[in-house]
Amino acid sequence: MTPPLRENNWTIPNMLTVSRIMLTPGFVMAFVDQRFDLAWILFAIAGFTDALDGTLARLLKQRSAFGAMLDPLADKILLVTSYICLAVQDWIPGWLSILVVSRDIFIVGGLALLHYSGVDVKRGIRPVWISKCATTAQIALVLLIMVEHSMQSFHPDIRQGLVLAVATLTALSGGYYLGVGLRMFPANGQARG
User: Fold this and answer.
1) What is the pLDDT along the chain (193 residues), one digit of tens a residue?
2) What does residue 34 show for φ and ψ, rounded to 5 degrees?
3) Ramachandran angles phi, psi of 10, nearest 5°
4) Under a CB-based contact definition with an 8 Å cutoff, are residues 54 and 13 in contact?
5) DSSP line for 23-68
6) Angstrom distances, CA of residue 125 to CA of 105, 141, 192
């Protein structure tokens, strides 16, 4: 009997996603050493891999279940880490960092809880435009703040606009996923797909 074919997890898009995870400690080390120029370059490269891995997965027809799970996890690791760094430096409001970090913890925790309850979360929860917009705004805010501090050139109006956009999109996307998750949660111990 021939063993079933296994999906190749080490595709170009997945390797880009793994590189994004590996860039996160480099970003933190540069940030802690106050090498803000290096920190924002590493963050920008990581953000670029986020756009590139999804595009390549579609173009090269290399979508995989592993990549679908790993990509949002890589985003969360990078963004949660960067928002904590910025909040510790008092470069963003503490409440904004709490909002971004809490949303991601609730999403990951909710997915784990649904999976543990027997729900096939891969079929029921897909990234939506509001979530992609929230991630884009979050990345843009980190880049703006890092570039401002490395070049000592500040743009308070643009920053305030991005803070408002991040807060609004993060809250809306968190509410959306909360609603989807609650509808998927099994009633009376019966798992639903």
Assistant:
1) 544 444 577 888 888 888 999 999 999 999 999 999 999 999 999 988 887 887 777 787 877 777 777 887 888 899 999 999 999 999 999 999 999 999 999 988 888 888 788 877 666 667 788 988 998 999 999 999 999 998 889 999 999 999 999 999 999 999 998 888 888 877 655 544 4
2) 60, 30
3) -95, 60
4) yes
5) HHHHHHHHHHTT-HHHHHHHHHHHHHHHHHHHHHHHHTT---HHHH
6) 16, 26, 13
Q: How many CA atoms lie within 13 A of 10 on its CB side?
A: 0
Q: Please tell me whether the overall predicted TM-score, pTM, comes out greater than 0.85 for this model.
A: no
Q: Which residues pair with 187 in a beta bridge?
A: 190
Pull the structure tokens for residue 77.
């690791």
- The H or E element that residue 110 is part of is helix 94-116
